[in-house]
Design goal:
Layout: E1 24-29, E2 35-39, E3 50-53, H1 69-82
Antiparallel strand pairs: 1-2, 2-3
């Protein structure tokens, strides 16, 4: 029996999606089209994760039991399923 080797690489954003900002370990799309970004070190065992919505600017915990990645993921996903804030417009070009 032969098995194939699988090589994992960093996620690549599709052409329609801009690259994730530095430090973002998870990203969720809200109902309104904004994103909820989870930042931190990505370690399941650390308590230093936070989520931030780019639409309504709400945030989740950064320290304590709710800041473990699994709990932060749940909070970010829950917020994304209900937030109807539209993405904030980009700053106009100041030429």
């Amino acid at each position: 029996m032969r098995t194939a080797a699988i090589t994992l690489s960093a996620p690549v954003s599709p052409a329609w999606q801009p690259p994730w900002p530095a430090g973002v370990v998870l990203r969720f799309l809200t109902v309104g089209g904004a994103t909820v970004d989870v930042t931190g070190d990505g370690d399941e065992q650390s308590e230093n994760h936070r989520w931030t919505c780019s639409g309504c600017l709400d945030t989740g915990p950064y320290k304590g039991m709710d800041a473990y990645l699994c709990e932060t993921r749940k909070g970010a996903n829950q917020h994304a399923t209900t937030c109807r804030a539209l993405p904030r417009p980009a700053a106009p070009d100041q030429r």
